[in-house]
Predict the structure.
Amino acid sequence: MPVSQDQELFAGDVLLSLAQNGRLVLDADEAEARVAELRRTLAYGYALLADPDYTGPEGRLRELLDELPKYVEAFQQATKSFTPR
Amino acid sequence: MDTETRQITVAVHAPDPITTAGLASQLGTQQGIDIRDWERRAETDVLVFAAECLTPEIVLWLRRLAAEDGKPVVLVVSQISEAELVPAIECRVVAVLPRSATTGERLAHAVRAAATGGGVLPPSLLGELLKHVERLQREVLDPMGVNTAGLTTREIDVLRLMAEGKDTVEIAGELSYSERSVKHIIQGITGRLKLKNRPHAVAYAVRAGVI
């Protein structure tokens, strides 16, 4: 699992693996809501990255924006394993 | 076969023989649970693994067990941090019990749930994973002052009053904003989140659990 200093560890690969193995199971509504939240977060994150006034840790933000799509994919797969679409 | 009636076989491992014997003894008195030697763990339904804390060596060991046997693991630990929970889940841990609060009944309940869960994460661990996802999202959203629903505190205040049936004038009065500001906030919410009108915005906030 990728480690980023003392901040929250990333677990996108773990979640993807859990979803692929059928261990991460969410009902369709829950998964849809989580995916929508994550996509919104990604949109805000890209906006933040493009903001010339942003003074936060850009490296960490880039890491988050690289990692969060894995969570989106994991939640989508978790739904598929529960409710075939 | 009905898991209520069939025997669930369990192998127990702890850092010392006394703890191993204690856990096996507690479980052994529970109906429907059959204890096997650790060496015969490949033939069991569930593994019970006790440790003081999750050191990197223990995580490695659990990972090896998951690869070899693929059995669900009930973990009994004295302490575990949020950061250690995800690696534990990765190693097929399906329940985490604090050592100080582990009784025979609780252990048996966790073992039965592990045996019947089909490997699916139980709600408690799933909840921890979802909290982890929220914490990551907050790292992105906090600098912008919005929550995971994409709403600011000010917007949530306005939506809450809208949900109470208040009109623009009443909301402005209650929050000490101008009417123009309230209209601007509502337009910001509906425009940004592609919501059709005020009731749609209120419904969105309710569904997102922010009001």
